[in-house]
Amino acid sequence: MNQHSRRQFIKNSAAALAGLGAMPLALNCSKSGEQAEGGIQPNFILIFCDDMGYGDWERAGHPTIRTPNLNRMADQGVTITQFYCAASVCSPSRAALLTGRYPIRTGVVQVFFPGNKVGLPLSEKTLPELLKPQGYATACIGKWHLGHTSAYLPTERGFDSYFGIPYSNDMSLESRGDPPIPLMRDRDIIEQPCDQNTLTRRYTEESIKFIEANQRRPFFLYLAHSMPHVPLHVSDEFRGKSKRGLYGDVIEEIDWSAGEILRALDRLGIGENTLVIFTSDNGPWTTQLQQGGSAGLLRGAKGSTWEGGVRVPFIARYPDKLPAGAICPEVATTMDMFTTLLELSGADIPRDRIIDGVNILPVLQGRGASPRERFYYFHQDRLTAIRQGKFKLHFERTVKPYQWAKCNTYKLYDLEIDPSENYDIASQHPERVRQLTQLADDFRRQVAEAGENQELIDRLLRRGR
Q: Among 220, 259, 409, 442, whose Cα sits 20 to 30 Å from the Cα of 290?
């Protein structure tokens, strides 16, 4: 990270925290199932959009999309400007969020389709499964996309309840044999095809019902919006409202949804004990033209490992626990949510497997630099780039099916000077190229030697069932 940016963020955050007085004891996390000191466990709400780009909200500079509620959330919390999803497509990204592990470890390296009979391996430990022994009520509302057959549904993976669609909202191709899009409650289909125009509103209503029902106990709400994935759908109240057109209408309804949830927390008097996180599963689907979003100044989009495919919006609100209005330039990922939330709850981090997520609470509080030393960019089962500090090395490659990338040439970028990845500086830094190549080779070997979930990887890459 740029040292000036890091020092400025820490300075600003320290000043903001000083005005709050001593940090509440509930932030001092215990281990082995004990509650946090002070006896109050925080609530967690993860709002996870589908295909919302880095540039798709007002504070990212979008000129015509209005997001007053997200703006207010940012004013009350922390915005991370270098926040990454672990994959640039749906299912792998969601697997990483809920397990704290790179998709190459879980085996979920490609999206699941309605014809697939598999899902996130049952051997994987999910965030809600680990929160439940700590007394948490858990709910998944929205898009799941980690397996739609009975063994893989949310209610079998740690969630007490589920309301939503089991995969992407475009997966209803008759030519492929897909059924109409189903809306499910727990294990049952309650509407088919579902009325997608009402999804964002119904997800919001269900979320508020869950919050109200569990306001006196710790809870984890995973609200995974189906939008703005194409095909775009919006309620009548927001149709035609945005100058950006239908895509803007969809984002503005998601913004309304976030505002309704924050207002419900404050109305119930539990806002100060609830960590709310807003982010996206991957970058925008720009091949959909006006129906797709924007990565802002970033190069690339959904499906790529350029920054626009994997760097996404991030806001965290936790009143009196995080500095208000802070902008954080540190590197963090969706995998870090797994570790951070478990630490805050007092739960143990699994020790029987490699966990790639790190605890970023001190980063959010402005108390230090990110513990994340590097980030690996994967496309399916291939490592295509690596970031360490401010440098990112792309591997230009000749690819044989289902094998690791074989590198021909390299492209090196300084992401703090050149976040748009316009200026290749590999020839100016040959030693840096060698160092990052060695780190990438070491990681490839580690993953290959572990050999986790290789059967699922092979099945997905060959579109097996």
A: 259
